[in-house]
Amino acid sequence: MGSCFSAESRSPIPGSPSSPGLGIRKRKSSRKKLGSRNPSFDYRREEPLHRIPGRLFLNGSSEIASLFTQQGKKGTNQDAMIVWENFASRADTIFCGVFDGHGPYGHMVAKRVRDSLPLKLSSHWEVNITSEEVLREISINTAGSINSEDTSFVSADEEPRASADLEETEKFPEFFQTLKESFLKAFKVMDRELRMHATIDCFCSGTTAVTLIKQGQHLVIGNVGDSRAVLGTRDKDDSLVAMQLTVDLKPNLPAEAERIRKCKGRVFALHDEPEVARVWLPNYDSPGLAMARAFGDFCLKDFGLISVPDISYRRLTDKDEFIVLATDGIWDVLSNEEVVEIVASAPARSSAARSLVESAVRAWRRKYPTSKVDDCAVVCLFLDSNSNTNGISTSSTFKMKEQLTSVEGVNIGTEKGDDPSGPASLPRSGTVRTTSDEEIHPEESEDDASKLDDSNTDWSALEGVSRVNTLLTLPRFTPGKDDRKAAGARK
C-alpha cells in the first residue's frame, strides 16, 4: 500500500479519476484480446477461483507456507497475497506472490492482479512448454549440456537480446528459459487487461508484484515495484544469513531514472523527504509515484513507467531454508536480517508470517510513533517441508549477513559499473502524521476489508505523510463514498 503523496488539491488532470472525461473506450473488445493464445483457460478457471484446492489467499498456513496480512492506519487494506500449491496442475510446483496496491483503487488492482496473473502465467507456460524440445536441441548443439550454478541469477531486460538469450540458453536450464518467456508475456497481458478493465479505474491506481514459481530445486522470480523477496539460507559456517533475491525497482536507480527521463517523465524528491525519489508527469506535479515499475498507473505509462518484470533464476540447495515475500510495510521498518531472524525464531511455521507482521507493527509504533502504520502482507515459503514444523530453525546461531543478489548478465535495475546492490531500499521519510495507537485488527476476509473505513481520509502531503505513500496527489479510497463517485463518473 501507500506510495502516493498528495500535494494540495489542484484542477483535475485531464483523464484523471476525478475527471468525468475519463473514459476507457476499448472495453467491448477487451475480452477477445485477453489471453488470446488460450482464452478458454482464464474464463474456465476464474469463476470457481476461490475454491481451487491448494490456493491460499487469506490469513492462514499450509504444510509449506504461512500467510498473513494486516490493515494499517490509512484505510482499506491495499495489500494482497497468494500461495498456490500444485500450480498449473504440476506436482512439486508452487506459485507465490504479494501485491501492494496504491492510489484510490489500489486495493482493487492488487486483488485483480493476484487473481488473474497466475492464470495468465499458467496459460502462457502451457503454450511455451511445447518449445522445450527446441530449446533442448539448441542447448545440446551449442553447449553440449545444461549446467546451472547454485548461486546463479539472470535478469531479463525490457527487450531481450539475441546474444543474451543465447548465453542464457547455454548456461541456464530450459525450465528457466520457458518460464522467463511466460513471465514476460503474462505481465504484459495483465497490464493490458487492467488498461481495458470495465470496472477498475487504473489511471492513477496500481500495484507492485513480487512473484515466484518453485518447481523442485528450480526457483524463478518475477518482480515489479518495490515489494521484496529475501532468502533465509546457511553460510559455510552453518549460520543463518539473509540473501535479498530482488532489487527494489525505484526511480533512484540510474537505469530506471534514465529510461523515465528519456520518455519525458520527471524524477525528483520533495524537499521534506529528499531520500524518496518519485516519478512525475512532464507538466504536472503529480502523481509522485515512488516506484519505477508497476501494474496500472496508466497516467505514467507514456512517460517511462513500465510493467516489465525483473526476472531472476536460482537453483536451490539444501542450505536454503525459507523465502519471505513481503510488501514495503515490512521492509520500511525491518532489515532483511531482522526479518530472517524473526521468521526463523517463530514458535511454529504456521505462525511465522503473523509473527513477522506483528513485529513490524511494533517497530512502526516504536520508531515512528506519529506516523500512520502501513499495510503489511507476508508470505513465508518453507523449502524443507519435511523437517520439524513446530520449530523453524534448529540452530541457535543467527549470524545475519545481508547478501544482495549477484546478477549475471544485464540487470535492469542497475547500469554497468554501478554497484548492483545499490539503494535496494529507501529509508523512511521524516514527514509524519499523528495517529492514535488503537489496536489493529487483522482482516478475516476480503469482504471485511471492503467494509473498513478510516475516519481520517483527508490525505494531503502538506499535512505530513509516512514515507510509504506511493502516490502523492490522490486521496485514499473511502468505501461507499468513492464507489458512488466512480459510478457517477462512468455514467
Automatic annotation (TrEMBL):
Q: Where is the composition biased (Low complexity)?
A: 9-23
Needed co-factor(s):
Mn(2+); Mg(2+)
The UniProt record lists the keyword Glycoprotein: no
Location of region: Disordered: 1-45, 411-458
| Top-level taxon in the UniProt lineage | Eukaryota
For this chain, one GO molecular function annotation is: metal ion binding
Reaction catalysed? Answer: O-phospho-L-seryl-[protein] + H2O = L-seryl-[protein] + phosphate; O-phospho-L-threonyl-[protein] + H2O = L-threonyl-[protein] + phosphate
GO annotation (BP), single: regulation of intracellular signal transduction
Gene3D superfamilies, per this entry? PPM-type phosphatase domain
Q: Which PANTHER family match?
A: PROTEIN PHOSPHATASE
Family listed: Belongs to the PP2C family.
Q: What is this protein called?
A: protein-serine/threonine phosphatase
Upper lineage ranks? Eukaryota, Viridiplantae, Streptophyta, Embryophyta, Tracheophyta
